[in-house]
Amino acid sequence: MSSTANDVSKSALLVLFLVTMIDMIGFGIIIPFLTYLVKDLAQEQGVVEIGLWVGLLMTAYSAAQFLFSPFWGSLSDRLGRRPILMIGLVGNTVFFTAFGFSNTLLFALAMRFLAGVFNGNIAVARAYIGDVSTPKQLATRMGLIGAAFGLGFTIGPFLGGEFSSPAERWDLFVGTVFETYPYLLPCVIASALSAGSLVLAYFKLPESVDKGKMALESARGSWSSQMSSMVSNSVSMLGKGTIGAMIWVSMLFVLGFTVMHAVFILYTEMGVEFGGLGFSEKDNGRVFAMIGLFGIFTQGALIGPLTRKFGTRRLIPISICITGIGLTLIPYTQAEMAWLQLFMVVSCIAIGNGLFQPSSSAYLTHIAKDEGYDFGMVMGAQESLGAFARIIGPLSGGIVWEMTASGSYPWDYHAVFHLCGVLMLVSGLLTLRLPDLLPLDDEE
Angle at CA 201, nearest 5°, toward 197 and 203? Predict the structure, then answer.
């Protein structure tokens, strides 16, 4: 790699960081107000399946990303990374705002799906970093993507909660379009951030793929052949001994974690008289921002010392156990002590998740190298099956909520959080199949 490429990459890292962060802001910004939006639109349309529609809207985004990430990645090989990343930012700018104007559930679903389509370019940002980085730089620069994820997931819910229903809080917005569409303002803010990144990308993001390589990549297979290969590789990896066991562990963990995304606010916004907490959009935004901050703290300050103390292999079941306890205890929060109890609950969830993600990736990387598997294929299978879990998790959570929320204990609103705990338990039990790492592991 030339020194010119390395110099160019430095000017592009900020843009790539912003692209990834805005992807996560787009995912997280709707979390605090989605349930309230669905309830408002459902009431107007006479729809009663609130939980199902919350799950569908959460799932639509992840499903679109899953389906279109290979397409954007392949297209970036042929046309270059820069135009594809800019197309994604244009899509973000348009569809974030469009979602804020939702007046029917179907329109909201369509806009959420289209936002996910254009947010399927995180793989392109990773590919860009690979293009312009030496092997020694690669791990550190890929870490920027992880940092952007954490920051975006903190900022997104905070913005979504703080700027929902602005006419109820600030006279400036009374009688404006933001009173008619109470969830438009956070969406406009997300669009403005995306538009700003688009301008920055236009002036500061050079192309990273040379024309000769683009011509060679034009001979690659179609989207359908890539999807078929991705699915077959992912399924085959599930049966590959230690590799398969670790991927199952990871997939079940993600499934349990994302079930919570759909139902957490269905619980917290529920009236105190029904067992909920009576939270507003602002309250929920602050809870999810708290989760994001705990996650950043965990990956920034805790993961290193804890890995040195316990080792990667032992840290995996520990992190699963901590997360499972937090998820299971969510519906036992008492309204009169809500913030204190939620602080403890979400700290378990965020710290557990913050420990699990890097530990599971490190373990899988080590096993793939130790057993001689193609590293790209293994990580691709993990990512694909994780994306599949993120698709079915929120939808499953919404369905279970609809079936049980009005029942009697334990088959009431507690049931879906118990399901999260069961999934974590199964994931934890599967770690018994994971062998200890050989001496070339993380302690080296």
Answer: 120
Q: What is the pLDDT of residue 1?
A: 45
Instruction: Give the whole-angstrom CA distance, residue 262 versus residue 390.
Output: 11
In a 10 Å sphere around its CB, with 0-12 CB exposed, 13-18 middle and 19+ buried, how is residue 226 labelled? middle
Q: Do both 207 and 231 map to the same domain?
A: no
| 194 and 329 part of one domain | no
pLDDT tens track for 153-200: 889 999 999 999 999 989 999 999 999 999 999 999 989 988 988 888
CATH number, domain containing residue 357: 1.20.1250.20
- 390 and 441 part of one domain: yes
pTM of the model as a whole: 0.83
Tell me how many domains the chain contains.
Answer: 2
* CB 163 within 8 Å of CB 280: no
The count of C-alpha atoms lying within 13 angstroms of the C-alpha of 320, restricted to the half-sphere facing its C-beta, is 30
pLDDT at 397: 95
Residues of the chain with pLDDT under 50: 1-6, 218, 440-444
Give the span between the Cα atoms of 206 and 305, in whole angstroms. 38
Are both 357 and 426 inside the same structural domain?
A: yes
Angle at 400 between CA 23 and CA 238, to 5 degrees: 65
151 and 228: one domain? no
